[in-house]
Amino acid sequence: LTHRTSESQEKTSDINQEFVSEDYDTSALTMDDIRREIEELTVAKKNLNKTKHSNSDLDESEWDKGLADELENVTAEELEAQINEILTSTRNNNSVEKNKMKTKSKIDEEPIQNSKRRRIEKNNIQQTHIEYDSLEKYGYHFKKGKLVSIETGKPFKFDVFSDQEENQKRYESIGKLIDNAVYELLENTCQLQRVIVPVDAKKGEHTSFIFISNDLSTADYLMVIIHGTGVVRAGQWSRKLIINEGLEVGSQLEYIQRARAAGYAIIVTNTNLNSFESPRLLRRSAICSIRGSASAEEHGCYVWEHFIHPSHAKYICIMAHSYGGAVVLEMAHRFLKEFDKRVFAVALTDSPMTVYGRRVKKNVLKMLKQRTINWVVDTEEVDTDLGEDDCSQIRSAGHRVHEWTSYTAIDAIFDFFTEERRKLK
Which CATH architecture has domain 189-422? Predict the structure, then answer.
């Protein structure tokens, strides 16, 4: 169908807008509708020609001369074919527009979907604890004595999972790695030697270990360090304090360094490493004791017999925290004469000696009382005299929390050792 530009054609286009409009809904148009339109147009053409010939004075603008001229030589079949072509083109254009709208919608939604996906992935990443073999794999290291994030430098964070049980598993795994980190510091920073116990361990036998200085056979003075009960190992007062407050507060490093500077040889005990898990019958296991270290007291006495007794030191002082006091009582009981002769001072931190000493002979308690001070949890200023009990003088550690006492009382403790050492001359 050929179009000619004319004023009448423009008017016709306006009159028949519903037929050619871009907004016309062709999706519901059927071939029957098209045929009816063609028939109406054909009838209009015949009537138009008839009227035109009978009345020469007719205003052609009223009859849409352009449309009549164009329809005059067009058959119904040709008109139907052209309408089909127009409808197909319209549908294709509509389809393209819909695809464009879908694509645009998809593009607009993409950042939102990506953000949502990243958020879901983040929440799904490591919802359960995975055990690693180094602090670095957990994202932490020690910097200036503090355990901090490698990435941000921030302190240790406990709550990383929604499940508190998983947080606790992670904390305990990191705690075990703290043990190894402290062992390395004892060896590398404090220059102590790791020594296997029992000393006569057979091949394949499970063992424990302690740390000693290399002058144990030559130094006149010796300091023996004993930690409390629980999960702590050699070199630690409190694993919790090491993780949350730093090595200065929670470890024995400062005690060792001060003692070395004062000329003491060192023995660091490891009283909580008492057993190992032995597999049995393929699917079952049993907890087996380490020979000579089945308990804290047994470990302390083994160390006395095999390391303290043969050492060169004439003068020995002991620093013990909490349950370490029970170990001291057992050593004093087992080696009373030697203990009385060689041990000139015993410093305890928040050790309930009244409880531990109930089954100990009075002569042992009396001997200990002459050389022992127990710095306990209290709000009074550090080293304030708080009286005495059956086996020690009692002084304030200047702190309300049990595990802090070894840290807060350190100055008072070394003053005590220095004063008692001076009396020896």
Answer: 3-Layer(aba) Sandwich (3.40)
CB 293 within 8 A of CB 208: yes
22, 60 Cβ separation under 8 angstroms: no
Going 243 to 245 to 247 to 249, the CA torsion angle's sign is negative
32-53 confidence digits (pLDDT tens): 655 565 555 555 444 544 444 4
Name the DSSP letter for residue 237: S
CA dihedral for 45, 51, 56, 62, sign (positive or negative): negative
Active-site hit among 208, 213, 322, 351: 322
Where does residue 402 rank: exposed (0-12), middle (13-18), buried (19+ CB within 10 A)?
A: middle
**CA dist 410 → 147, 248, 370 (Å):** 22, 11, 20
Q: Could you list the mean pLDDT of each consecutive 10-residue stretch along the chain, which spans 425 residues?
A: 43 40 44 58 50 46 51 62 67 63 59 56 60 88 93 88 89 93 98 98 96 98 98 97 97 99 99 81 71 98 99 99 98 98 99 95 97 98 98 98 99 99 91
3 state DSSP class of 292: coil
Residue 35 is given by DSSP the state H
Domain boundaries defined on the chain: 7-122, 189-422
What counts of helices (H) and strands (E) characterise the chain?
16, 13
Long-range pairs for 274-278: beta carbons < 8 A, 24 or more residues apart: 274/208, 274/299, 276/206, 278/206
| 322 annotated active-site | yes
Instruction: Indicate yes or no: pTM above 0.90.
Output: no
